[in-house]
Amino acid sequence: MTAQDVSDRVVDGAADLLREALGDRVALPGDADFDRLRMPWNVAIDQRPFAVAYPQSAEDVVDIVRAAVKCGLRVAPQSTGHGAAALADTDIANAVLVNLSAMRGVSVDPDVRTARVLGGTQWNDVIDAIAPYGLAAMHGSSGDVSVAGYILAGGLSFYGRTHGLAITTVRAVQLVTADGSLVRASAEEHPDMFWAVRGGGGAFGVVVSLEIDLLPYGDVFAGMLLWDAVHAPAVSRAWAAWTQDAPESATTSLRVMNFPPMPDLPPFLSGRSVVVIDGAILESDDVAAELLVPLRALEPEMDTFARMPSAALVAVHMDPPDPTPVATIGGMVAELPAEAVDAFVAAGSAPGVFIAELRHCGGAIARGAAGGGAISALGGEYCVVGIGVVPALEMAAPVARAVRGVVDALRPWHADSLALTFVDGGVDRAPAWGRSRGRLIDLKYRFDSDDVFASGHPVETLG
Ligand SMILES: Cc1cc2nc3c(=O)[nH]c(=O)nc-3n(C[C@H](O)[C@H](O)[C@H](O)COP(=O)(O)OP(=O)(O)OC[C@H]3O[C@@H](n4cnc5c(N)ncnc54)[C@H](O)[C@@H]3O)c2cc1C
User: Fold this and answer.
1) Which parts of the sequence belong to the FAD-binding PCMH-type domain (predicted)?
2) Domains and CATH numbers, the chain
């Protein structure tokens, strides 16, 4: 659907109609709250929707979707705005941005190891709620990413090589669909919608709650090893070789990180470039320590690997806790011979690159699980990610070019797949869905033929 098609269907007086239907649950340009509510976590993205709606309940979401559709407007669900750069590929000038940040909450059933979370819930909320029961969840490296946005796009976690993509832990999704219905989709109820939303995410509705499986880990062996970046070539080659034999119980990442001099940073990072290996090893302390011997032999200047409460795992990667202006690009890599590692390290030290990262995938991540949805597995052995900080909006394009260099450096070794969570716009998403894509497009037409939902990862509509 083109921006012109959408614009043509917006009814006269749409702003007044929205206000009449939604009252103070919607903010329009010029309203006191509009700028605060439209601001995403990724503050490099200046998103300007037609209006922002701010639901407190599933019933509010039903009202919002119905009012938007009646006005001829699209609906763009957003929980935190970590993925705002992906949504920026879509014109949302005639969309109601649904800011779900008030819809947070977790209820835990420790006996069957599941949690029910509201549509805007963040992983830190889940971690806090499940820690007293000695349970863990398949969160990623950042606790303020939302469960819905992350998990329905796949979700790469440090439990991944043992337990698969986080999306495989979704048991049910309750969402408001394009016709304004509140639907519970699971293997038994609305199975086609359940299949589609697991990979199609916000292109199929506004998720108001999810039910997810939890993991039986009260503690984990996890941490990080850090060296000065002069050691990046040797450490990176050693890690790449180590991952070839690492068991599926070990999920780790390797990063080249370039920190500007900043008083807020700890002195061991400020103004330095470093190389870091971090992750989790789901083994006893002795087995985990034995596995780490070749990496520890490289004499890191910092080594925090130890047994820790599973609630502490989310902090190991040191992701920024506050809204940040970033440009990110990801790709998948089939193998990492020495020349690929050297190309990665060189690209990681280019100007404009804040972080160049390789996450070890494979194992259960590549195998998937029975009964999965449009995404249930991720091909390729490594996910490569380039991240840059955008100091001012006019720097967005050069920083994006610099971080693209990290992914492009590994082009000869790319796998024909894509981790949707690390797509921040500007790329073809088709490889993320692979063979599921045809069915996903058919189901988009069946459930949302008017393309009501504007998602960070759009699914084509037929016709
Ligand atoms: C600092 C940082 C660390 C990260 N770490 C990891 C990681 O370790 N592993 C990993 O796999 N990914 C990671 N990511 C990527 C992250 O998972 C994606 O950006 C994800 O889309 C963020 O989801 P969100 O809901 O928080 O963001 P949003 O921008 O709010 O949402 C992104 C998209 O998700 C959909 N969506 C969100 N909420 C809803 C809802 N309630 N209903 C329907 N659709 C919804 C929408 O289509 C929306 O456009 C990280 C990103 C950042 C910035």
Assistant:
1) 45-217
2) 3-99 (3.30.43.10), 106-216+433-447 (3.30.465.10), 219-430 (3.40.462.20)
Percent residues over pLDDT 70 in the chain: 100
Among 145, 198, 212, say which to mutate for ligand 1: greatest number of ligand atoms within 8 Å of CB: 145
For ligand 1, say whether the CB of 223 is within 6 Å of any of its atoms: no
What angle (nearest 5°) sits at the alpha carbon of residue 356, between those of residues 243 and 457?
95
The runs of H, that is alpha helices, within 141-226 are 147-151, 160-163, 191-200
**Nearby residues of 203 by Cβ (< 8 Å), 6 or more positions away:** 444, 448, 453, 455, 457, 458, 459
Task: Report residue 44 CA to chain centroid gap.
Answer: 17
Angle between the N-to-C axes of helices 396-408 and 338-348, in degrees from 0 to 180, rounded to the nearest 10: 170
In sequence order, which residues have a C-beta less than 8 Å from that of residue 17 and are 6 or more positions away? 11, 67, 70, 71
Instruction: Report whether residue 406 contacts ligand 1, using a CB cutoff of 6 Å.
Output: no
Q: Three-class SS of residue 300? A: coil
Residue 434, token pair as written in the block: 């692979």
How far is the CA of 141 from the CAs of 90, 312, 314, 330, 453, in angstroms?
27, 11, 5, 15, 28
Cβ neighbours for 192, distance < 8 A, ≥ 6 positions apart = 443, 446
Tell how strand 250-258 and strand 355-360 pair up: antiparallel
Neighbours of 450 (CB within 10 A): 16
- Is the pLDDT assigned to residue 1 strictly greater than 90? no
**Ligand 1 pocket, residue 124 CB under 6 Å:** no
Residue 441 has pLDDT above 90, yes or no: yes
Q: Are strands 206-213 and 273-281 parallel, antiparallel or unpaired?
A: unpaired
What confidence tier does 101 reach under pLDDT thresholds 50, 70, 90?
A: very high
Q: Give the other-Cβ count within 10 Å of 102's Cβ.
A: 14
List strands edge to edge, sheet with 51-53.
26-27, 51-53, 95-99, 74-78
Residue 98, ligand 1, Cβ within 6 A: no
Residues β-bridged to residue 210: 117, 173
Q: Is-contact 314 124, C-beta < 8 A? A: yes
State the pLDDT at residue 463.
55
* Distance from Cα 77 to the centre of ligand 1, integer Å: 11
Write out the two tokens for 63.
């009202």
Rounded average pLDDT over 341-365: 97
pLDDT in tens, 373-410: 999 999 999 999 999 999 888 898 899 999 999 999 99
Instruction: Report the C-alpha gap between 400 and 195 in whole angstroms.
Output: 33
Whether the CB-CB separation of 289 and 279 falls below 8 Å is answered with no
